[in-house]
Amino acid sequence: MGNTHARAPPDPAHASELSSYEAACLADADLQSFDSNLQAQTSHAIGALAAGVEVRALSFDSLREVTGCLLEMNQQVVRVILDCKQDIWRTHELFELVEEYFENSLQTLDFLSALDKCLKHARDSQLLILVALQQFEDEDRQAGGADRYARTLEELRSFRAAGDPFTEEFFRIFQAVYRNQVAMLEKLQLRKSKLDKKLRCIHAWRKVSSMIFAATFAAVLICSVVAAAVAAPPVAAALAAATSVPIGSMGKWIDSLLKNYESAVKGQKEAVVTMQVGTGLAISDLENIRVLVHRLEIEIHSMLQNAGLAVEEGAVKIGVGEIKKQLNAFMTNIDKLGVQADNCSRDIRRARTVVLQRIIKNPNQ
């Protein structure tokens, strides 16, 4: 359209719209292609009209050229619109995801409370071991009979009675929470993919608004030539009324609408990405917790076996000696698990806060 408009000064009423359209063409290859086709069709239609004027008669063939051109221009716009069709105003799915995200985070915090109880149990077991080792040191220096290590064995029995702090219920809760977080991440990734597609579609829709303006402008230009060719006063009057309508207003309105919608979709995407980050971090924290719990499980079971060796088989020195070797690693992993649990809790609470801030920030929510 740029060349078509260059031949004559544009109507001041449409100058800003034309300038905006030309800038959009320079920035977008698809619009450039559309504009080239539009120029060719407009020139062809006007050429057909000119041929009819030369014989001082508006032929049927020339009118067919004009109407075909107008239909083709409209059809191009329709094709783009159909390619970009979306249920763009529905956000119920996003709200459901946000609700599910917060529900999952609460379930994970509940799991961390259960983990804290298990850690307290493990620390109590650690204390029983430390007392048993201290009793062994005292009793080993003393001479005695069969009950020489009575107090040591008593503490080891208490340790065995305490058992494994990580119960089947604990692992059931962990698996449920972990599965929910992984499923949540998959849903968020799918939602982000849909939002990315919508953002790409918005770009196309904004091209449509430029196409609507250009096609309308070309149609009015062709109709003005038709009116001049037939020299019919009623048609000329109708055309004058039509050209008084702000041609670019529809395109500008659509563009404004799409800008607002683009802002809303970007806000939704920000919230989804924030939930993705929070969920991914929670999964990573849970993985680290799983590894540390597994290590503690191995160490606890081994120490329980050694305590059994001392209590049931009377091999007190051998059992206590093996427990001593494992104690430092056991205590270190309890501390690491406690730190990891605190990190996970802090990460979840922080992510919940950031997600809420994102939602509050976006007025379209």
TrEMBL record:
Full protein name: UPF0496 protein At4g34320-like
Keyword annotations from UniProtKB, A to Z: Membrane, Transmembrane, Transmembrane helix
Gene, per the UniProt record: LOC115735803
Membership in a protein family: Belongs to the UPF0496 family.
Compartments, record wording: Membrane
Native organism: Rhodamnia argentea
GO CC, any one term: membrane
Transmembrane spans: 208-229
Pfam families recorded: DUF677 (PF05055)
